[in-house]
């Protein structure tokens, strides 16, 4: 995917440690149709991936240091339980956050992708949060905050999509494809949140 | 809200028949912050409401007849269980769908709004679907399809926001405010879905 993906701590995409998703490829097909996600969108996402590839560090820094750090109820999920900073946890999860941008754009949406959607969601729930990085942080990220924060991701990705001088129409297509993928992903992430025993409490 | 809102069948916004939301005003405030929703967004939504007010019938017709009707796994939720059309159910829910656009733009996001968010979500789950209109349709709309379909709502609302000749910057602000509200609403709708006993099965 990219040359360094295998060096990313805790990044297990496509490996045997990732369990099968309970959402099926038929579910994914249904959600693509519900979101209006077509083959053209897949192509525009690949273009977006090329546009974003050398910007992912800056983008994630924008999201984390520029936005999340200023929102205490979001920032705490990357900090220790006592509120102190945990630079190692943050750095590791930032690397995966960067790779997630690339995976969103450049990976085929196949069984591996679907499995990793579930893995990502679980790592935000009490089932798996903190485990990957042996962190002592909040037990889960509320689903509702992730769903709401997508509005920020969708809005703030725009200048990075524009950054390589693509024409306005292509940028709009890339952005629309990105937004469709976000809705498919938040739909997929809902499933693990709904299936865990403490579903209502991790909303 | 609008002169005819009280004539809309099954529309119970602000009435004593709507139970209190289990999401609190503090939750709503948290989600607004997570989505980056500000007072400026609330103002742009009100402008959007004025722009959209005389277009809601056309917009909902676009969504229902133009898009949903062509997607069998979505269309069936407004049809009888045997697959036959139920024009009365469709017409009634379309009137409420139209009003929901106006409520999104023009209502204050207060306790009544929050309560009605829960009511809307429940009417898509097995707890309340079909009851309002005594319909014999599917028992629930999967949460995941609603989350995915937001991408379509967000994309297709654009020309209607542009229709009154507002300048490009104002239209972009209106659209961004709309998208933020959609993410807050899909976050709120997740709560009833997570709280019902059959949570996992109505994903």
TrEMBL record, chains A, B:
Gene3D superfamilies registered for this protein in UniProt = Globins (1.10.490.10)
Molecular function GO labels: heme binding; oxygen binding
Please give the Pfam families that the UniProt record associates with this protein: Protoglobin
Q: Where in the numbering of this chain does the Globin-sensor domain appear?
A: 27-195
Task: Please state what the protein is called.
Answer: Protogloblin ApPgb
Instruction: State the organism of origin.
Output: Dyella dinghuensis
């Amino acid at each position: 995917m990219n040359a360094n993906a295998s060096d990313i701590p805790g990044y297990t995409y496509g490996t045997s440690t990732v369990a099968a998703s309970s959402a099926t490829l038929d579910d994914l097909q249904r959600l693509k149709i519900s979101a209006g996600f077509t083959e053209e969108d897949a192509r525009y996402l690949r273009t977006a991936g090329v546009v974003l590839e050398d910007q992912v560090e800056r983008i994630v820094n924008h999201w984390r240091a520029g936005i999340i750090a200023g929102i205490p109820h979001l920032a705490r999920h990357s900090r220790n339980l006592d509120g102190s900073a945990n630079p190692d946890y943050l750095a590791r999860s930032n690397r995966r956050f960067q790779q997630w941008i690339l995976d969103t754009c450049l990976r085929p949406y196949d069984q591996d992708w679907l499995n990793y959607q579930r893995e990502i969601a679980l790592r935000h729930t009490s089932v798996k949060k903190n485990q990957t990085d042996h962190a002592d942080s909040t037990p889960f990220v509320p689903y509702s905050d992730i769903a709401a924060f997508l509005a920020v991701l969708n809005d703030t990705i725009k200048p990075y999509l524009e950054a390589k001088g693509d024409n306005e129409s292509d940028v709009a297509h890339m952005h629309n494809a990105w937004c469709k993928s976000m809705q498919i992903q938040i739909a997929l992430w809902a499933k693990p949140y709904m299936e865990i025993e403490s579903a209502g409490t991790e909303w």
